[in-house]
Design goal:
By secondary structure, the protein is of the alpha+beta class. Helices cover 43% and strands 13% of the residues. A hairpin with a 5-residue loop joins β1 and β2.
């Protein structure tokens, strides 16, 4: 039977209103996000028996995987489109293709601190003191409305920060009287700012007067049988209404991690499946995130009693690894994380260091004597020497120990071997460590050649998946933050007519945008490629964009 009883009941509660819906699988993971003009009609469409017989294999795989769904009602279709894009970027559902890149919806930006402000299109909102309008789901309607606003309020659309008479000679808008040409005319800056402010009010929704004017012109053109002009006014009026329609921005959407129905049962099942002495009350998960070897970061999440312990989440920037090497990155994170815990435990109990077993006594291969590095560490471990010193009591997992009861590595044999090698070097080889590979959800264990496969309905596997997915989310979030920070630091890209050479010369001399702000015009003019005029313009450009406040 395609639709379960709980799905049938939920379908009956769906309203005939626009909104978005999220399809979830049996693990609670979002696998598809969609929008609808009519939620009940659209979502019910997925559970019709006739659709199951269709030729679309992707649709059939999606419907077979649906275990539950959620929905959110919005006011209009544009809001549904905005929220759909927001959620797809947040959850990265398996069956969605659109909106999975880092491309955002268009916004309008104007900085009133500029010498002669102008409206520009942007996809990234920054804390630079500028006013932003949007985002707008329809980019063509936005561009048409922006052209109308510039013509109606006589605003400039040229690129230079401070246009000059030379720019005026090549400015078609100024010669056609679409722009008041504040670069050469006697229009005062205060008067031009009044025009910009009026345009801002228009974009904020105060546009009823202009809509009335366009409707009257359209009717006059139609009465005069000038149907081509009437059609142009009709399309312009429709674009104006699309652009100025109020929509919610959906700045934040809470991320909800699926919780277990019975955490204690899942922990007991996991401990039994892995052969642990007791259920692992504290689990730490490690994941690596990078894009083609850049912005290499890692996350470490902590679960206590089967639930996220966010106070003990940690994130790392990979420092010693060149290129894309997940094995070495895992090794660095494990070394940094547990060597620090070991140092803290040693400081609290000096006897730990004298009683700690040496790595060569536990596993000679961990020291790289075979010359195979990580590859050797990935092989089954040798049995522990009976003559090795006893494990210090303070380094064993206890209710008050800083060490976890289980370490989960996102990956297969290679990642697990790299982690085990570092733990052996630290004398912490006794800590239970496993790897969870995504493709077939296989559990790799030290000393076992074959991976362990648990039932997909197993509570133990679902618990490991929650830890793995949370570490993956936390790592990707940190990676995205670094990428956005890198983009926001490229403030010089907004300065007109600056190339890579001049930007590199500025950064080489001053080191950062903050130091450029403090530099005088004379110091800026000393940079190769900058004269007095360009330096003065750059100084005005930087002063119009205040520095972001430092987070405490």
């Amino acid at each position: 039977m395609l639709a379960a009883d709980h799905i049938r009941k939920k379908l009956g509660t769906l309203p005939h209103k626009p909104g978005i819906y999220l399809m979830r699988d049996r693990f609670g993971t979002v696998i598809y996000v969609g929008k609808a003009r009519d939620l009940r009609k659209r979502v019910s469409h997925y559970f019709q028996p006739s659709r199951r017989l269709g030729w679309d294999l992707k649709f059939k795989a999606l419907t077979d995987a649906i275990h539950d769904f959620d929905f959110h009602v919005v006011r209009s279709e544009p809001e549904a489109l905005l929220l759909e894009g927001k959620l797809i970027k947040e959850f990265h559902p398996r069956y969605n293709i659109s909106f999975r890149d880092d491309k955002q919806f268009l916004m309008l930006k104007v900085n009133l601190n500029d010498p002669i402000p102008r409206f520009t299109l942007t996809r990234l909102k920054q804390e630079d003191g500028a006013r932003y309008f949007g985002p707008f789901p329809n980019s063509s309607a936005l561009r048409s409305t922006l052209a109308l606003v510039r013509r109606q309020y006589h605003l400039r659309g040229c690129r230079p920060l401070t246009p000059t008479e030379r720019d005026y000679k090549h400015c078609l808008c100024a010669h056609l009287k679409y722009c008041t040409a504040p670069c050469i005319s006697n229009v005062a800056r205060e008067e031009y700012l009044g025009q910009v402010t009026a345009a801002c009010d228009f974009l904020a929704g105060q546009c009823s007067e202009m809509q009335g004017q366009l409707e009257q012109e359209m009717k006059k053109a139609a009465a005069a049988q000038d149907y081509e002009h009437a059609a142009q006014l009709r399309d312009l009026l429709a674009d104006l209404r699309r652009t100025t329609r109020k929509v919610s921005r959906f700045e934040r959407m809470p991320y909800s991690l699926p919780l277990a129905l019975d955490s204690e049962k899942d922990l007991a099942e996991l401990g039994q499946a892995l052969g642990l002495a007791a259920p692992p009350e504290r689990i730490e998960g490690i994941d690596i995130s990078n894009i083609s070897g850049t912005f290499k970061v890692a996350s470490l999440v902590s679960f206590r009693h089967g639930r996220p312990d966010r106070a003990n989440y940690r994130r790392f920037k990979i420092k010693t690894v060149q290129g894309q090497d997940d094995f070495a990155s895992v090794a660095e994170v494990v070394r940094r994380r547990y060597s620090r815990i070991l140092r803290e435990a040693t400081a609290a109990n000096p006897e730990v260091e004298s009683r700690k077993p040496k790595a060569e006594d536990r596993n000679p291969k961990a020291q790289g004597e075979t010359g195979e590095g990580v590859a050797a560490a990935a092989q089954p471990e040798e049995r522990e020497d009976a003559s090795a010193p006893p494990i210090p009591d303070s380094a064993l997992p206890t209710p008050h120990s800083p060490f976890p009861d289980l370490i989960l590595i996102d990956g297969g044999k290679g990642q697990l071997g790299a982690a085990r090698a570092e733990l052996e070097k630290l004398g912490l080889g006794h800590l239970p460590t496993i790897g969870l590979a995504k493709e077939f959800e296989e559990i790799f264990r030290p000393g076992e050649k074959e991976p362990l496969r648990l039932s997909h309905h197993s509570g133990a596997l679902k618990l490991l998946q929650r830890v793995r997915d949370e570490s993956h989310r936390f790592a990707n979030t940190y990676n995205a933050q670094l990428r956005l920070r890198k983009i926001s630091e490229s403030l010089l890209d907004e300065f007109p007519n600056i190339g890579e050479r001049r930007k590199a010369a500025l950064l080489k001399k001053f080191g950062s945008v903050q130091r450029m702000r403090l530099a005088s015009v004379e110091k800026l003019a000393e940079v190769s490629g900058f004269g007095g005029k360009a330096a003065a313009e750059l100084k005005a450009f930087l002063e119009a964009r205040p520095d972001k406040p430092q987070k405490q």
